[in-house]
Amino acid sequence: MAIIERQNPTTPNLVESDLLYVVTSNNGNRPQFQFVAQVVDKDGNTIYIKQQPNPAGSVPVAAKAVFNISQIARDYMDVDNPWKADLMSLNSSCNNFDIKFWEETGSSVTSSVGMVNPLSGSSVYLLDGVVEMNSGGWNWNSGSYYSDELASENETFSYQHALTHAPLTQSIREDEYLTLSVLNGNFDDFSVGKTELYAQDIHTIICRFYNAARTPQTVFEWPNTVANNGGPRLVSTDLWNTVYTDQTNPTRMLHIGCGPKNLIDSGYTLPADWSYYTVEALAQDDAGLDNSNGKWLFRTFEKQTPECDYEGTRFTWLNELGGWDYNTFPFANSKSDTIDRKTYKQSFVDYSSANTYDVPYDKARRGSSIYAINYDETRVAESDWLVKEQADWLRELIESPNVYIQEGTDFLPVIIQTADYSYKTNPRSQKMYRLTIVYKLANNRRSR
Questions:
Q1: CATH code, 55
Q2: Torsion of CA 84, 90, 95, 96, to 10 degrees
Q3: Which of 24, 150, 254, 369 is a plausible cystine mate for 64, CB 3.0–4.6 Å?
């Protein structure tokens, strides 16, 4: 017996966690013995980690090593900016890591060493998300956001697999962008007895608009194809068993552009009196068409109008699952500027006067001069009253390292400074919360 993989992280998983690989060997008594882990990402970047063996007792083996690749993997994660996606966009933030283990040993304590007995370990597909330390395990509970149903069949199921903790019903304005992130396809950790024909196959996206009387108005529908910036299908009627080998790292997570402004930018005309709309992602049936009984996600978005002509603040942020969330704080967005002026003081007498014979008197000569001005702009945004579910979800906005605001059709990076909750209790003792956020633009105004 040589090296054996005893433990590995499940896939898909989240990079902000402990991604543990445990290997053992019965060769730990060989000269200069070490365990070696080779980590290779989707772009071929390769890292080697070496570790001295830890005693593991006589049962089952004499030596083991514990490798945690999370800190290495973080350096190779990218960032998506999918906010203005037309229909769909592929991800670039996720990364797939292949692991290989070796034993490094020599013939004596003074000889050269070499790597022997290679073992291909379990690969892992990582999203830029967080596994809470109090979750009860090392791994992400991906089953709440990924299910491998039998593809291209008339299966009946209904999931809410969008990568978000947002409430199932949200408010949105007609000029606002929004995307829903979702896992797509299949991964390498097939369940016992399952094959690549089991997948979370996102086949079609459907948006249905309704008026205030709940009467259907308009339906927009598009397939998950390469032409619509998705994939891996080229034609919507292609069955999964003919395209699964074309999967790439980017097609395993999709950003669905389903905000009103995304739809308008994609060429759709919204009904003038729409009150709300729904977004659903469907599977494929055995004829290559939509399986209306197989839903991967279903969300509702209610039309919001400005409060007393307040512009409000539209936030978007990288959430704990590696997707993007959106929320509009509808009330006044106050601003204040702090201006820091750097000055120097020069003599009233011009000792460097170009006049050789005399120094003219000049009462306009400046004594104190400004050589730099720095702007520090602080803004304050206030939410509407929130129920506990919304307040808990918006905690991710406060904690996110990657937050933007939408201004017109632009997205500007911001830094959250402070956040305060206030709450009230109504006669039925149902707590409601209001969130006030103080933030700054990541890039301040230019100064002279």
A1: 2.60.40.10
A2: 170
A3: 24
Looking at the fold, whether 124 and 158 belong to one and the same domain comes out as no
- Per-residue pLDDT tens over the stretch 354-367: 666 788 888 888 88
Query: What's the rounded Cα separation, in Å, for the pair 434 and 421?
Result: 6
Residue 400 sits in the same domain as residue 300:
no
Mean pLDDT of the chain: 89
Q: Name the amino acid, one letter, at 52.
A: Q
* CB-based contacts of 356, cutoff 8 Å, min separation 6: none
**What residue type is assigned to position 137 of the chain?**
G
Cβ contact 13:125 at 8 Å? yes
Q: CA-to-CA distance for 35 and 116, rounded, in angstroms?
A: 10
**Who has greater pLDDT, 2 or 25?**
25
User: Distance between CA atoms of 260 and 200, rounded to whole angstroms?
Assistant: 26
The predicted model scores a pTM of 0.87
Domain tally for the chain?
Answer: 3
Name the residue range of residue 200's domain: 142-305
pLDDT by residue (tens digit) across 131-150? Answer: 988 888 999 999 999 998 99
Distance CA 253, CA 446 (A): 38
In a domain, 19, yes or no: yes
Indicate if 340 and 203 belong to the same structural domain. Answer: no
Does 419 score more than 60 pLDDT? yes
The torsion angles phi and psi of 78, rounded to 5 degrees, stand at -100, -175
pLDDT at 422 over 90: no
Q: Residues 370-387: what's their mean pLDDT?
A: 82
CATH, residue 193: 2.60.40
Spatial distance between the Cα atoms of 307 and 225, rounded to a whole number of angstroms:
39
Does residue 121 share a domain with residue 204?
no
